[in-house]
Specification:
Nuclear Transport Factor 2, Chain: A, four-stranded antiparallel β-sheet, four-stranded mixed β-sheet, single chain, Glutaredoxin, 2 domains, 10 strands, disordered N terminus, globular, alpha+beta
């Protein structure tokens, strides 16, 4: 008797799961068709269900995210929030955080400029930066303090006006220097970075970092991220940023 009940319950759950999956797939096709018809200029790369019934998250090639109804006729601007017993949970930010973790994990230290923590590492920050940005220069001055607090800082290049801009060319020289960290120190204090390695072309590396920055939501510099996918702001003092790591 118990076996029969177990089998029946399992079959019901399986059928419900299949039907649910079919409904989600059907809604996604409806949304795609609606967007193709009404908003063909938007490059929809993914559609995912949210915890809210009948509401889907749409992810664009630009890295932007929006909420949409199951029929694709209503778009919601802003984050999806869930009201819980002890406050409000930002569902959209949690989703973005997971995607940032995956994207940021593709960055290789050999393609970054790394300022390692002194002693035991207690945290790590990935900073998308531009040498001509005033707040980037201000943040750079905080790095020795961050390192002393046990926080490693890793720079990714993100020239705000493109790789061919003056700042973009300075970043290219920094990435082509024998000692990138020293060259970045020079660039952030508006000094010449010195000689670069012959036959060095960092175009592909920096272009990839620009594209990845857009995907994780970088819109200006500095843009700071933790390894668990949190975007922790633009410029922050060492003492303030350390609070993100419980220091």
């Amino acid at each position: 008797m118990r076996l029969a009940v177990f089998v029946r319950t399992s079959l019901i759950a399986l059928i419900a799961g299949v039907l649910s999956g079919q409904a989600i797939a059907g809604d996604a096709e409806v949304i795609k068709a609606q967007f193709k018809k009404s908003l063909p200029q938007l490059n929809v790369v993914a559609i995912e269900p949210t915890v809210a019934p009948g509401i889907y998250a749409i992810f664009l090639g630009s890295g932007e995210e929006m909420m949409v109804s199951a029929d694709g006729k209503f778009i919601f601007s802003g984050d999806l929030l869930a009201v819980q017993e002890r406050g409000v949970l930002n569902i959209s930010e949690a989703s973005r955080g997971k995607k940032r973790v995956k994207a940021l994990s593709t960055l290789k230290d050999e393609h970054l400029i790394v300022y390692k923590a002194v002693g035991e590492e207690r945290g790590e920050v990935i900073a998308f930066t531009d040498t001509s940005c005033g707040y980037c220069q201000k943040f750079h001055a905080e790095i020795p303090k961050l390192n002393q607090l046990g926080i490693t800082v890793k720079y990714a290049a993100w020239p705000r006006y493109g790789l061919q801009s003056k700042a973009g060319k300075v970043l290219a020289d920094v990435w082509c220097s024998q000692d990138r960290a020293k060259a970045m120190d020079m660039a952030k204090t508006r000094r010449d970075v010195g000689e670069t390695v012959a036959a060095c072309d960092p175009t592909a590396i920096i272009t990839d970092q620009i594209d990845l920055g857009r995907k994780v939501g970088v819109k200006g510099t500095p843009a700071l991220f933790t390894l668990d996918g949190r975007q922790v702001g633009g410029y922050r003092s060492a003492a303030d940023l350390a609070k993100e790591f419980g220091i």
